[in-house]
From TrEMBL:
Ranges where the Fido domain occurs: 104-249
Protein name: Oxidoreductase
Highest taxon, organism lineage: Bacteria
Annotated source species: Streptomyces katrae
Lineage, broadest ranks: Bacteria, Bacillati, Actinomycetota, Actinomycetes, Kitasatosporales
Classification via Gene3D superfamilies: Fido-like domain (1.10.3290.10)
């Protein structure tokens, strides 16, 4: 595929991106090569999903302790509980949508918003991009909101890129999907949670992390909201330097997610978890 028809390919050549891609690959390979993975990979996947959901919720303002997330069954009490519940549902649903993503990414995004909303969001705004004049509840990202026409056009472009595939590394594609959805905020609510769930889908579906044991959400939370938003501003700027910084930030998030699962493997090996 030529660079003209593969718009993400050029991003892989930006300064520092190849190094980020290689560093991520090595981190992922290390955790996949852990001896515990040979016999208990299902447990690692489940734990990574829980920790990923906790991390995504934390970035959205619901920074609960892991054990609190683990023990709770009711996520309807208040705004933070709704956020944690949405993150848990999204993480669980992401694995069910892998086969649909490359054929119909918009269908997947609609489903993700529907799942995130649960019963907390009423009306016909659920599961579809917002229309002109409709408000967006997105406390994390305080940047100008693209209008509905721009959202529709850029979502269509993003869908075409996903369906076409290409030669760009999985990290680059995941970072662009994440950044574009965060920039557009196409839904009435839960856009940042949906964006991180979509990043998760790309990382799994690409084959980089097929068992979903390297939760980038953990790494995004560990780096902190301030660093997350600063890197995201680089994406929004559209400059080569800014895009490279955002991709590197997402790469570091995957590496930290891999480190988290390595720690879980070590704990299981010791019989401590």
């Amino acid at each position: 595929m030529s660079s003209a028809s593969d718009p993400l390919a050029a991003l892989g050549a930006l300064p520092g991106v190849a190094e980020s891609v290689e560093s991520v690959r090595k981190a992922v390979d290390r955790v996949y090569g852990h001896r515990v993975m040979r016999r208990r990979s299902g447990e690692i996947t489940s734990e990574a999903a829980l920790r990923g959901a906790r991390g995504s919720a934390a970035l959205s303002g619901a920074d609960w302790a892991l054990e609190e997330v683990r023990r709770r069954t009711d996520f309807s009490a208040d705004a933070e509980a709704l956020t944690v519940g949405a993150a848990l549902r999204l993480t669980a649903e992401a694995g069910q949508l892998l086969s649909i993503w490359r054929q119909s990414p918009m269908r997947v995004l609609a489903r993700l918003h529907l799942v995130a909303s649960g019963t907390a969001v009423a009306g016909d705004v659920v599961g579809r991009p917002r229309l002109a004049g409709e408000p967006v509840d997105e406390p994390l990202v305080d940047l100008p909101l693209p209008d509905a026409d721009e959202v529709a056009g850029r979502l269509d472009g993003l869908a075409r890129v996903v369906i076409a595939g290409g030669s760009a590394p999985a990290l680059v594609t995941a970072a662009v999907v994440h950044g574009e959805l965060l920039a557009l905020r196409p839904f009435a609510s839960y856009n940042d949670l949906v964006a991180r769930a979509a990043e998760r889908i790309v990382l799994i579906n690409s084959g980089l992390d097929p068992k979903a044991i390297c939760p980038a959400e953990v790494g995004h939370a560990e780096q902190g909201a301030e660093a997350y938003l600063e890197a995201f501003k680089g994406y929004v700027s559209g400059t080569a330097e800014g895009m490279a910084a955002w991709i590197a930030h997402c790469g570091r998030a995957v590496e930290l997610g891999a480190r988290e699962s390595t720690a879980v493997c070590e704990a299981l090996q010791r019989g401590a978890a």
